[in-house]
Every structure is written in structure tokens, then in C-alpha cells.
Design goal:
seven-stranded mixed β-sheet, globular
Length: 243
């Protein structure tokens, strides 16, 4: 990876090379009110730029197999929808190195990566929306990938059912505002917690919450790496580019 300044929100500099693409339109799950009180989203009519809350990433790895990325686009028109970057801690990076070095992509190899990532207890993720998205598209994309994680046995049926029931409530603040080009989602994954920050393109922090327990991190990562997920192949292939 090239040297340079870190992104302001915790990401390392982007690696050189072709961006990996994943077909279809989907967006990531959040887990408001899972095990902790959810922060209230401010009214979008009065929201103003605020300082981005600090997110500690000092424990994350910086060497080979420590970062992966995917570009999501609509299939027919190849319109960029969002970019996803994930960084992992030293333990997961070392395990990925052992599994991936010198290998070529296969479904079996992707299964091995999924096993490592779903159990990762130190990771960071960022989504940048490349275009506006309606709330309905958001919810459909989230649940589509979470359902695949459930069907693959990566999460429990109760996790999927809770997500299905609560997503429209959690993201009601996007009904009128919509997701806008340039909005960002930040995640900090730890063993028993998931912190989520939603930052509008105007600079307002619309959501900042930490949810406790092992389920929220596992659902998030499972939705990325389940078989058939919109991101799995692109993420794994971006790691193999380092081999």
C-alpha cells in the first residue's frame, strides 16, 4: 500500500490498482437500540455541521491483508452506488495472510475468509455513498444481505427477524431526507460492541451510537461475507490483489 496521510475518519490511504466491483444495489445494516440507548437523530431541517466523533483505530493492522474494498454499482447501467472499505486488527490480518497468500479466488477460499471475518473482534468499516438512495432501497438492500447471512448459518433467525421489524423504525429520519451523495457510514467493530456513526454530506452527525453484545458485529460482517452477498467477491478479490 502507498504511504500517505490517513483519512480524517480513520481510514488508511487508498491502495493503488483497479477498484473491485460488486453487482446490484444494497446498503449496510445498522443496529440502533440493540443493547444500548440509541442517539436521537437531529431534525434534518436544522442539522448543522458538527465535529466528527473520535473513533480509535490505533489497534488496527497496517500491513498486508489488513484492508479490503469494494465498489457497489447497479448492474444494468453500471452506476456507482457506494464504496466500502474495511480494515482489520492484527490477529485477523495474520489469519488472512495464512489463508490467502499465493492463492487464487474460489468459493471455498471465500468461505475461509468469511469464517475469519465474521468472528473478527477488531475491525473498522466505512461506506461512502456515491449517489442518492431512497429509504426503501436502503432497507431492501440491508435485509437482502442479512437474509443471506441467516440462510448461510452465519447469524440466528432471531437476528434476521429483529432486523426486519426494526429497520424502518431506526432509519425513519431518512424517509424525507433520503440518503444523499457524499453521506458516510462509519463502523467500529469490537468483540462485544458495534459503534455506528452516520455523517451527512453537509457535515452533520445524524447518528452516533454503540450497541452491545456479540450479535451486532456478527450481523454486520456476516452481511458483507455471506455467500451471494453483494460485497463478498469484491472484498475477497481485493485482498488477493496483494498476493
Amino acid at each position: 500500500m502507498t504511504a500517505g496521510r490517513r483519512d480524517a475518519d480513520g481510514g488508511r490511504p487508498r491502495a493503488n490498482g483497479a477498484r473491485r466491483r460488486a453487482a446490484a444495489c444494497a446498503v449496510m445494516p445498522l443496529f440502533a437500540s440493540w443493547g444500548a440507548a440509541a442517539a436521537q437523530a437531529p431534525s434534518t431541517a436544522t442539522a448543522s455541521p458538527t465535529a466528527v466523533p473520535a473513533m480509535d483505530t490505533t489497534s488496527l493492522a497496517s500491513g498486508p491483508y489488513s484492508e479490503m474494498s469494494a465498489l457497489l454499482e447497479k448492474t444494468i447501467f453500471k452506476v456507482d452506488v457506494l464504496t466500502l472499505r474495511i480494515r482489520v486488527g492484527r490477529s485477523a490480518a495474520a489469519r488472512l495472510d495464512r489463508v490467502l497468500r499465493g492463492r487464487r479466488y474460489s468459493d471455498a477460499l471465500a468461505d475461509s475468509v468469511a469464517e475469519i471475518m465474521v468472528s473478527a473482534n477488531d475491525a473498522w468499516a466505512r461506506i461512502v455513498f456515491e449517489r442518492g438512495v431512497r429509504l426503501g432501497q436502503f432497507l431492501d438492500g440491508v435485509l437482502g444481505n442479512v437474509r443471506k447471512a441467516w440462510k448461510a448459518g452465519l447469524i440466528e433467525a432471531a437476528d434476521y427477524e429483529r432486523m426486519s421489524a426494526m429497520l424502518p423504525v431506526w432509519f425513519g429520519f431518512l424517509e424525507d431526507r433520503r440518503i444523499r451523495e457524499g453521506d458516510r457510514l462509519l463502523y467500529r467493530i469490537r468483540q462485544e460492541s458495534l459503534r455506528t456513526i452516520y455523517i451527512g454530506v453537509e457535515g452533520a452527525v445524524l447518528l452516533d451510537q454503540t450497541d452491545l453484545g456479540a450479535s451486532p458485529p456478527r450481523i454486520l460482517l456476516g452481511s458483507y461475507f455471506a455467500p451471494g452477498s453483494d460485497f463478498r467477491k469484491a472484498l475477497v478479490r481485493s485482498l488477493l490483489a496483494e498476493s
